[in-house]
Design goal:
The chain is mainly alpha-helical and 76 residues long. Helix content is 61%, strand content 0%. It has 4 helices and no strands.
């Protein structure tokens, strides 16, 4: 029952069939290349990791500083 519930929830959050079809199409055509720094294409995902609400006036400043640090690291 838990597996069925999990499968139902997963298909509601993500179109599993479309994802599976896309992965089947690209199989064997992807190249994994380790990078020395964060890829610019990964910045939006990296900015979301560990995001927490910071109360007070400094919340925007702290978030901007963290974003600037990630951007500087990605650019090199």
């Amino acid at each position: 029952m838990l597996q069925a519930t999990r499968a139902d929830a997963a298909t509601g959050l993500l179109d599993i069939k479309r994802l599976g079809d896309m992965l089947a199409r690209v199989k064997g055509h992807l190249l994994h290349k380790p990078l020395d720094r964060i890829s610019p294409l990964a910045l939006p995902v990296m900015l979301e990791i560990g995001r927490e609400r910071v109360a007070g006036e400094g919340d925007e400043m702290l978030l901007e500083e963290a974003a600037d640090d990630l951007i500087r690291e990605a650019i090199g």
